[in-house]
Amino acid sequence: MIKQNTLLFTMALSFLFMAMTKDEVVKVVLFGDSITQAGVQPGGYITKMKEALAKQGIKDKYQLIGAGIGGNKVYDLYLRLEEDVLEQKPNIVVIYVGVNDVWHKTSHQTGTDPDKFEKFYVALVKKFQTNGIKVICCTPAVIGERTDHSNQQDGDLNHYSNMIRNVAAKYDCPVADLRKEFLAYNLKNNPKNQESGILTTDRVHLNDVGNQLVADLLLKMIAK
Amino acid sequence: MIKQNTLLFTMALSFLFMAMTKDEVVKVVLFGDSITQAGVQPGGYITKMKEALAKQGIKDKYQLIGAGIGGNKVYDLYLRLEEDVLEQKPNIVVIYVGVNDVWHKTSHQTGTDPDKFEKFYVALVKKFQTNGIKVICCTPAVIGERTDHSNQQDGDLNHYSNMIRNVAAKYDCPVADLRKEFLAYNLKNNPKNQESGILTTDRVHLNDVGNQLVADLLLKMIAK
Amino acid sequence: MIKQNTLLFTMALSFLFMAMTKDEVVKVVLFGDSITQAGVQPGGYITKMKEALAKQGIKDKYQLIGAGIGGNKVYDLYLRLEEDVLEQKPNIVVIYVGVNDVWHKTSHQTGTDPDKFEKFYVALVKKFQTNGIKVICCTPAVIGERTDHSNQQDGDLNHYSNMIRNVAAKYDCPVADLRKEFLAYNLKNNPKNQESGILTTDRVHLNDVGNQLVADLLLKMIAK
Amino acid sequence: MIKQNTLLFTMALSFLFMAMTKDEVVKVVLFGDSITQAGVQPGGYITKMKEALAKQGIKDKYQLIGAGIGGNKVYDLYLRLEEDVLEQKPNIVVIYVGVNDVWHKTSHQTGTDPDKFEKFYVALVKKFQTNGIKVICCTPAVIGERTDHSNQQDGDLNHYSNMIRNVAAKYDCPVADLRKEFLAYNLKNNPKNQESGILTTDRVHLNDVGNQLVADLLLKMIAK
User: Fold this and answer.
1) 10 Å Cβ neighbour count for A171?
2) Where does the record locate the signal sequence feature (chains A, B, C, D) (predicted)?
3) What confidence tens digit (pLDDT) does each residue in B52-69 have?
4) Which of A13, B31, B92, D127 sees the fewest Cβ atoms within 10 Å?
C-alpha cells in the first residue's frame, strides 16, 4: 500500500515536473522559404538564435524549429501548415515569406498576385490564431541591396511589405520589419551602392552579417 | 394506440421516401474558374446540362452546382475547397482548372509552376476522395484555337494536360479530355486556322458551340 | 543690263531672306512612344509647346515635329531613325523613350534588357550627333504615381533613368529629368498616394497637368 | 625598259590571279546567336562544314565566317549588320535567329513581340538583298526536344517559324527548316520523349549530332 502510494506520488511529481517544464518551454516554428531552410545550417539565423540563447543560459526555455523549404511562396505555406506547424503545437509561429512571391514573377512567371498574396497571408494568420498560436510577421528583406531604389523588384517588395504590415496591424501581430532594417543597414554600410555582399551573398540569401541581423531582431521579439 | 401506430407508420414512410429521394438525387459541384462561372449563365455549359436533363425528364435526379470564380488557379480552388465543395456534400466534383495556371504566366507573371500545379491538384483529389466524393478531372481546353500547334501556350497546355491525365490515372478518376476534344473539333471545323470564333469567343471563353460541346461531354460522364 | 542686274539683285535678296529665315527656324523632332504620339493631339504636350510659343510671339522661330509611335521601345526608334529623324534634318532631337522597355517586361514579356537598352540608346545619340543634331534626353516619367516607392516598376524605372543620365553626361546631352520632376510634383500633390490621376490618366499616359509639366520643361530647354 | 615591262606583266598576272581567285571564292557569313557563336568552336557546325569542304577538296572555294553572339535577338543582328555583314562583302548570309526572341520572354521578360520580330527580320533581308547578298533563312530549331508538343515554347517557336517561312517565301530566300528537321529527327530517335540529349545538350544548344545535322543541311544549300 505504501509502495503503491509512493509510486503514484513519484509519478504525479514526474508529470507535474514534465508539465512545468513543458509550460516553461516556448516552442517557436520559423515558417518560410530557402532563407529559413538555410537558417538551420551552421551560421544560419536560427542556429545563431540558438547560440545566443545558450550564451544567455536560457537555451532550455526555447525550442526553435526551422520549417523552411526552398522556393516556397505564401500558398505553399498554406498547403503544408497542418503538418509543419499545427501538428507541432507551437506557442509562436514566425511567418517569413514573400521574396519568391515577387521574385518568381520575373524568374519563372509564377509569382503571386498581390490580392492572392494578401488572401493567403490572412488565411495563414487566422488559422494560427484560431489554434492559439501567436503570429510574428516578417517583411521580405531584399532582392538586391542597392540603396537608390533601383533594384528591379524594389517597387513590388515595398508593395507586398505594405500589405504584410497592414495585415499584421489588423490582426495584432508584431512585425519583424526586415525590409526596413535591411535598407537602414545598407544606407550606412553600402556606400558603393552594390547589389550584394553587404547582407546577402547573391542579392537574396543571407551572408553572415545578414543572418546575424535577422537573428538579433527575431530574438528580441521572441525572448522578452 | 392505433392512431399512434398509424402516425409512426406514416412518419416512417415519409422518412423512407425522403431517404429514397435523397439517395436518388446526384449532387454535382462543378469547381473551376471563369469558364465555369459563366457556365451557370443562360447559354452556359451548366445551364445547357440542366436543360438536357429536363428534356430527358430526369432533372430531379441531378443537382448541378456551379462553383466557378474568375481568375482561379489550382491553389485558389484549394483555398476554398471546404466551403465551396466539402460543405455542399456532393456525390461528384468536376475539377475544371488549368487555363489560368498557364495563361497568367504571360499575362501577369503569376502562373503556377508545373510541380506546384501537380502537388495542389493531387491534394484536391485526395481531399475529395477521402470525403467520399467521386472526382472527374477536365483537361484545360484551349488558349487560342489555331490547329497547327502555333498558339503561344500550346506547349504548356499540353504539358499540364499530361499531368492531369497522369494524376487522374493514378487516382482512378475519369477524365473529360477537353484539350483533346477541342483540338479534334477544330481540326474538322477550323480550316482557316483562326485563333478564336470556333469554340471560343476570345481564344479562351466558350461560345455557344463550345458550351454545348462541354455540356454534352460532361453529361455523358455524370449521367450514366 | 540694268534689268538683269535688278533681277539678280532681287534673286540674291530672296535667297538671303530664305537663308535667314531658314537659319532662324529651329527644327525639333520629338522622338518617342505613345506619350509623344498623343503629344500632337489637342491638349498634348507638343500642342501646348506650340501654343506657348505662339503666345510669346515666336512661333515662327520653332518647328516642332512629333514623331511618336505607340508601343515603341529604344530599338524601334533605332529602326526608324533615318526616315523619321535624319531625313527631317532637324536641329534638335528630343529622345523620350523607356517606359515600354520596362513596362512590356510585365505586360508582354518583351521588355528590353538593361545592357541592350543602353547599347541602342548610345547608338541613337551617336547617330544624331554625327549628323550634327543636338540631342536632348528625357528620363521615363512614371508607371504608377504612388510616392512611397511601391509601384511595381519603380526599381526598373530608376535603374533605366540612371542609365539615361549616365549616357547623357558622357555624350554631353542636356536631360529633361521627367522621372525626378514627376516624383517631386507627386510628393507635393498626391497626399493620398494614388496610382494615377495626378499627372497621368492611367498610371502612364499624361493628363492635362502632366502634359503641361512636360511642355514647360521641354520648352525651357529648347527655347533659350 | 624590259625590266619595267616584266614588272608590269607580273603585277597584271597577280591581279588577274587575285581577281579569279576572288571570283571563285564564295564568302558566307553565318549570322546568329550563341548557337552560331559555338559553331566556330571545335565540333561546332561551322567547323564541321569547313571539315566537310576540306574532305571534298573544295575548301578554298568557300570562306565561312561565323558571326554569332550569345543572347542575340533579331534586333541585335540589325544593330550590327553593317560592321559584321555588309563590311565583309559576303556572297551569302545565313540568318539563324529566333530562339532568344522566344526564350527570353520567359527567362528575362525581354523576348521580341511577333510583329516586331517580323518587321526587323524583313528589314534584315531587304538590307542584305539591296547589297546584292543572297539570304538563306533558318527556322529556330528547339527549346526542348519532347516530341509530343509539350515543350513550353513549342507554340511560339512554331509561330515564329511560320513567320520566317512566310518572309522567306515573299523575298525568295531558301529556308533551312531546322525546326522541321529537328522534330523529324526526334520523332525517330527520341522514343522516351526526353527534353534534351538527342540533338542538344541543354534543350537549346547543339550536341555533336545536332551540329552535324545543321552542318549537313546548310552545306547542301550553300555548296551546290
Assistant:
1) 15
2) 1-19
3) 999 999 999 999 999 999
4) A13
